[in-house]
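Summary for the lay section of the report: proteins are chains of building blocks that fold into shapes. Here we show the chain for PLC-like phosphodiesterase and then a coded description of the shape we predicted for it.
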Amino acid sequence: MQFTTRFLAILGAVLASQPVVHASSLVSRTVEKRATICNGYAELCERSYGSLAYVGTHNSYAVGVNQLSANQDHNITTQLNDGVRLLQVQAHLENGVIRLCHTSCQLFDGDTFEKYLGTVRTWLDANPNEVLSILIVNADNVPAGQYAAAYAATGLDSISYRPPNPALGYLEWPTLGELIDSNQRLVTFLSTTANQAEVPYLIDQFTNVWETAFNVVTSFDCNVNRQNGDPQNMLYLVNHYLDKLLLGQPVPFIERLNETNAASGPGSLGEQVERCSGQHGRPPNFLLVDFYEYGGGSVFQVASQINGVPYDPVTPVARPQPTSAGTQTSTPRGNNAQPFVQGSHLVALASLFVGSVIVAPFLVL
Ligand SMILES: *[C@@H]1O[C@H](CO)[C@@H](O)[C@H](O)[C@H]1NC(C)=O
Ligand SMILES: *[C@@H]1O[C@H](CO)[C@@H](O)[C@H](O)[C@H]1NC(C)=O
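The coded shape description reads as follows.
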């Protein structure tokens, strides 16, 4: 019974993906261009995109150390090289331009979305056997057409997956091999304003992907927190980044990252995955984390376990950047963000209050 359903789902996905291949080239394409390695593993080529787990970086562009607004400390090229396969971004509209900011652009400005997409394009071109996903948190409800302009400017529109229906059941997704063979290797979800009749590759998130609670400060649960469809049939994402409250504001709980990102143990990613797999009868698809490299690759180990493949990287993942504990000042890394120098945490805190961001960043020493 289960086999039949799965077989039909896969068959459906195969048939649905046919229109993108011209009839005249169909035979040669299927014979000549057949990926044998997909996202690093031969075994994954035959697996549906929707049956797999991917490590994702929460606010992937918010790179820095000793900044309360940073969620990562390595740039997205390093993230991708290390195995991250979902890049989450928070997009804001500033003077008519889409920029990647955290809460507000005065607080953290990670440059334009188009520049970010250019880096993604470069990486995808250099890694033709990889399927990557982007999740856009559309904080200012920018229309889909404006995102489409940035995709077109970087050529990413041409390698983006266009689902045959606005909402796909989690087993209706094509296999990684099909996405790679048809060079539709970028899957983008947009949290609001998706209009797939107009821009077919900016996929509505909440009819396709549900999420667990975010900004968790206690313990991670597996309840459906945000969705706009039937969760049983959707992909799902766990927000596995622990915050602590500083003057009532959630900030990354850096001191707990080793345990939070671990493959097992109390509060770990492995523990949440196990709990969610039990509660929902299948593991999550997206594991969204802060400072992914804490744990020395443990987050990738968890994804590999879900996918049934070994985690055996050729080179170890990047190491955490030193934090203010051992240094006098901080250095901004790869972005335009205002650094929060050690000793001016009060300023940093003040600027976390969105109402006061206009003046606060200029007070930074
Ligand atoms: C990303 O970081 C790596 C390692 O620090 C560095 O070599 C590379 O130039 C950076 N790439 C970009 C696009 O900033
Ligand atoms: C995390 O673990 C690494 C490796 O064991 C260790 O060097 C580091 O100090 C730990 N960091 C924290 C914040 O506990």
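Put simply, here is one thing we learned. The two ends are 65 Å apart (CA to CA).
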